Amino acid sequence: MPWKPVEQPKCPTCGKTAYPAESISAKEKTYHKICFKCCECDLRLTLTTYKVSDFGQDGIFCHKCVPKIAPSQTADTVDVKRNQAQNALTKSVKMVNEQVRGAPETIGMATNALPT
What is the pLDDT along the chain (116 residues), one digit of tens a residue? Predict the structure, then answer.
């Protein structure tokens, strides 16, 4: 049986062999360190700065170029949801604490037991 060399992974950007010493593995693919850049703006990326599309698009992106969901006209914005949640909380609060620190009722003395 003849000897066969171990097949090395190919870089999807340039198509050349990506050896372990000069490669980065991300998104189940192996890239050269030089080829590991945003597919939109060609910004060089690292394993901590790259993003992947949630829509199944191939390629890697920087944080500025990654595809995002555009809000629809009927979608609630973050501010609207925050205001709705705050209004729901304030409606559920029915008692307001009107005690004053140091007042006789807060230190356990009745008002009729005060010395005059």
Answer: 788 888 889 999 899 999 989 999 988 899 999 999 998 999 999 999 999 888 778 888 999 988 887 666 555 666 777 777 777 776 655 555 666 666 666 666 555 555 55
In sign, the C-alpha dihedral spanning 26, 31, 32, 34 is negative
Contact 61, 51 (CB under 8 A): yes
Amino acid identity of residue 16, one-letter, is K
Instruction: Output the CA angle 90-91-95, nearest 5 degrees.
Output: 80
| pTM for the full predicted model | 0.53
Q: Position of tokens 């372990």?
A: 20
